[in-house]
Each structure stands twice: as structure tokens, then as C-alpha cells.
């Protein structure tokens, strides 16, 4: 497990993946962002210590103090002897984050979850989908959710504090990104966050998404039925190391473990 300063993980991920290939001028943008992230995120990421436990027998997210978030209760149970383990009957936790602008079409996620709800065979786990963020279209989305009547899928929205955000991302089985970019230059920060927490992603396909989501750490989709199929496929393999889900989990872990700190320093050297 890398000890790289998590704020650097984010800063470098931003630098490399978002702006790295484009222009020197972007460096200051990134640095400004980096120091902002350092202030608001750095310490929090240290709190999220993900256990590289191949058998999934432990919590993937360890809280440093007694605070336990709702996801914990839902996902874990305390065993005899006091150890904490993932519940066998736990739902699949799918997380998406957004600033609720018209750039992201959340009807794709709703439609995919509705397909999952009808198509999901009994052996597939129920899904809890948490959409986090503040923004103009949140109320509209919540109204759309209220119209659905789903039996095996629960959709909730939340505004998470900067402390809870990485904890919840790290607890999720899957992150979903609906980000698109007309410039083709700005990769979704939320995907960097998700992978940075070791969580595989399904990301909406647009021009340069494959620079970030490479088939090893996540999948890309172009429409709701494709996303529904991906969720079904992965849901059937939760907790197993072999197969597609296990591979993606390893890919996401590799993303985390890249020595971004050294990488960032080297990248800065190149621009001196
Ligand atoms: C969704 O995408 C898949 C894969 O690209 C394609 O085969 C399918 O026709 C699409 N479905 C719809 C409804 O557009
Ligand atoms: C940073 O890491 C990436 C991925 O491993 C690599 O392709 C790139 O060359 C590295 N950059 C520097 C400056 O070392």
C-alpha cells in the first residue's frame, strides 16, 4: 500500500490525467486547485485507510475514530470476537456524485436502475444508489425518483461533508460517472476520486474518458441498457476475486498505488 500523501494523489491525478497532456499554462490552474484540495481534502483522505484485503473479509474503509456512517451499518456486521465484516446479505452500494447541472443526464442512471430492478434475478443483490452533491437539478431528480416504484433498488440523494465523501466513495462497490465534456479536455474529477478510493467505476463514454477509465479499473457505457448490463454483471460477482469485478477492483487498487507523489515531483521537474 502506498504511503503517498493523499492530497498529492489528488493533485497529481488532476495534473496528469486532467491537464497533464495539454499545456504548461494549465499548471497554475492545477496548482491553485491542488492547494485548495490540500486544504480541504488532504487530511480527510488520510482518514480513509483502505485495507487491501483480498478476501473482502474486513471493512474496506476504516474510520479513525468512533464515527460510523450509515453505509457502515448497512454493509457490515460485527462478528463474534468483535471483528467487523461485510454482511453476506448486503446490498450493492453504487455511488455517483454530481453538481446537478444539465451537463449530466441522470435519467440514464434512473433508467438503468429501473432495468436492474425488473431484470435482476433473485440471486443478484439489491442495490442502494447514493447520489451525492448540491445543485440546480437535484429537486427535479428527486421528483423523478419519487415517481418510480422499485422493489430491489433504493435511490437516495445526499449532501456529504468533505469528511464523509471519501469514506462513502471508498465504501462503495461501484462508482458511476455521467460526466460528459464537449471540449474533450476535462476528465471527471469524481472518477479520479472514486479510483483514488479504490472503487471501480462505470463512466459515461465521451471523447477522452479512456485516458482515465481504461477497462482495467472501470467500464464505459453509452446508454442506460449498457449501464444496466454492466451493473448486473458486476453485482453478480461482488465479493469474488476472480472474474470481472475482481479485476476491476485490482485495477482501481493499482490506480491508487501508483506513486503519484514521486510522479508529481518528476512532472514538476520537467517543467522547470
Ligand atoms: C446501447 O448501446 C449498445 C452498445 O453500444 C447498443 O448495442 C444498443 O443498441 C444501445 N441501445 C439503445 C437503446 O440505444
Ligand atoms: C507518471 O505515471 C504515469 C503512469 O504510470 C507515467 O505514464 C508517466 O510517465 C509518469 N510521469 C512522470 C513524469 O514520471
UniProtKB/TrEMBL annotation:
The name this protein goes by in its record: Chitobiosyldiphosphodolichol beta-mannosyltransferase
For the protein in the UniProt heading, the enzyme class is transferase
- List its EC numbers: 2.4.1.142
Pfam families, sorted: Glyco_trans_1_4
Question: Could you tell me which Gene3D superfamilies the record lists for this protein?
Answer: Glycogen Phosphorylase B
In which domain of life is the source organism classified? Eukaryota
Q: Which GO terms describe its cellular component?
A: endoplasmic reticulum membrane
Q: Which UniProt keywords apply?
A: Endoplasmic reticulum, Glycosyltransferase, Membrane, Transferase, Transmembrane, Transmembrane helix
Amino acid at each position: 500500500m502506498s504511503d503517498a500523501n493523499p492530497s498529492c494523489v489528488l493533485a497529481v491525478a488532476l495534473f496528469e490525467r486532467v491537464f497533464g497532456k495539454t499545456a504548461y499554462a494549465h499548471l497554475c490552474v492545477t496548482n491553485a486547485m491542488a492547494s485548495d484540495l490540500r486544504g480541504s481534502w488532504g487530511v480527510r483522505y488520510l482518514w480513509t485507510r483502505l485495507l487491501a484485503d483480498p478476501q473482502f473479509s474486513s471493512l474496506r474503509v476504516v474510520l479513525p475514530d468512533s464515527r460510523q456512517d450509515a453505509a457502515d451499518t448497512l454493509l457490515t456486521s460485527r462478528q463474534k470476537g468483535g471483528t467487523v465484516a461485510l454482511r453476506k446479505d448486503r446490498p450493492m452500494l453504487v455511488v455517483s456524485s454530481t453538481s446537478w447541472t444539465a451537463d449530466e443526464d441522470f435519467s440514464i442512471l434512473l433508467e438503468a436502475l429501473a432495468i436492474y430492478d425488473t431484470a435482476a434475478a433473485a440471486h443478484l443483490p439489491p442495490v442502494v444508489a447514493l447520489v451525492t452533491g448540491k445543485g440546480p437539478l437535484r429537486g427535479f431528480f428527486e421528483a423523478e425518483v419519487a415517481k418510480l416504484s422499485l422493489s430491489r433498488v433504493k435511490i437516495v440523494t445526499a449532501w456529504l461533508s468533505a469528511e464523509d465523501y471519501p469514506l462513502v466513495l471508498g465504501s462503495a462497490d461501484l462508482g458511476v460517472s455521467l460526466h460528459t465534456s464537449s471540449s474533450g479536455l476535462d476528465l471527471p474529477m469524481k472518477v479520479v476520486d472514486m479510483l483514488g478510493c479504490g472503487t471501480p467505476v462505470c463512466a459515461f463514454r465521451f471523447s477522452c474518458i479512456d485516458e482515465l477509465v481504461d477497462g482495467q479499473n472501470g467500464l464505459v457505457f453509452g446508454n442506460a441498457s449498457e449501464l444496466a448490463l454492466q451493473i448486473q454483471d458486476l453485482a453478480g460477482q461482488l465479493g469474488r476475486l476472480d472474474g470481472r469485478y475482481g479485476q476491476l477492483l485490482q485495477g482501481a487498487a493499482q490506480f491508487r498505488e501508483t506513486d503519484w507523489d514521486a510522479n508529481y515531483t518528476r512532472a514538476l521537474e520537467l517543467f522547470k
